[in-house]
Amino acid sequence: MIDGGKSYSYSALLQSINADDYFPLLKTTDLFSYFSNLVKALANNRSLTLLDSDLNQAELKGMDENLVNAKEKVSTIDFSSMVDVIDAVKNSNSRVTIFTSGTTGQPKKISHDVQTLTRSVRQGGKYADHIWGYAYNPTHMAGIQVFFQAFMNKNVIVNVFNRSRHEIYEMVDKYSITHLSATPTFYRLLLPMEKTCTSVQRVTLGGEKSDEHLYQAIRAIFPSAKINNVYASTEAGSLFASKGDCFQLPAANRDKFKIMDGELLIHRSLLGCSNSLALDGDFYHSGDLIEWVNQQEGLFRFKGRKNELINVGGYKINPEEVETMLNSIEGIRQSVVYGKANSVIGNILCADILLEQTVKMTELDIRQLLNGKLQDYKIPRRIRFVESISVTRTGKLKRT
Question: Cβ contacts of residue 19 below 8 Å, gap of 6+?
C-alpha cells in the first residue's frame, strides 16, 4: 500500500495481523492502521464497526464514546502467510457494521457478513498484477469492496482519495495504476485533461449518475481503459454491473427486485441487518429512480435519488438532469444543482458552477445555452461561479 508518501508491504500487514489485540471501534485517518485492524478482526472471527474519521458526537448517538479506539484482546491465530490470512477472511464468521452516509439525516447502522461484502470479488492469476488507485472513503461500501478486490489478490493499493487533480495525474503515472474505481464526481474533477494515462486498463464508476459527456472525457484521459458502472448500496452491498451504459436485473433473481413509481425496491433477503430499515412488505425502498431501456430484458438506467428531487412551483425537478445538461456545456468543469427554500414556490433552483481555468462565462450566457434544451422551470434562477465544488465524505456531490 502507498499512502501519503509512505509504503507498506504485505509482510508488514502480516506482522500487524499477528499482534494480540484489535479495535472493535477504530476511528483513524491512517489507512494502513484501519485496514490492518479490519483484516485482523475478520481473520480472527471478531466483529467490528467501521467509523468515519470525522464522525461527530451527534452522529455517534447511542454509542458509548469511551469504546471508540479502545483495544480488545483477541486470541490471535498464528498466521504464517498472507494466503492463510486471505482464506481466513473469506471464511470469516464476523459481522461488519457500516454507517450510511447520513446525507439525508442521522446515519443508520447496517450489519453485513463477510460473504455479502465479498460477493463481487474476483480472484485468479489474471488479477494478480493489478495496481489499484484507491479513490473511495474506506469505511463505506464502495471503498470496502475495492479493498477486498485488491487485498484478496494481494494487489498494490495507491491511495488517491481526496487528492488534488494534479496529484492524481502524477500518482497514476508514477505508480502505473491499472485500475480505478470512483464516483463520477471524482472523474469530473480530473477535467480539464492534463495528460493521457495509458497504464489504466479499467475505469469503474459508481454511486452517482453518469452521462455521455463524462464517458467521452474518461475515454480521452484513459484511452486504454474499459469503462463500466457498478451499483452498490450500504443496505445491500453490490447488486448490478453495467451493460454498456445500462444496468440489467439479473435473470437468476429478478423476483428480488420491484419497480414502483419509477423507484427500485430490493427484497429483504438481499439486505444486511438493521433496526433502521423500514420495509414495504418484504421489500425495501432504495430511493433510487430508474427509467426502463428494455423492460422485458430488465435493462434500465438510473435517473437519480428520490429524496433529492426539488419542488419548484409544484414541479419535481431531478437535479442530476440539470447537472448533466450543464456539464455538457463546453468550458464547464463541474456543477451542482440544489434548491433554496422559498415561501411562494417551495424552492428556487440554484446552481454552483466550476469553470475551466481559462474560460469566462456569465449567468446570462449559461441561461441562453440552456434555453430550448431544458424546460424553463428547470433552468436555475441563481447561478454562482465557484472555485471548488464541495463533496460528501463518500466523495459524492454535496448539495447545500
Answer: 40, 76
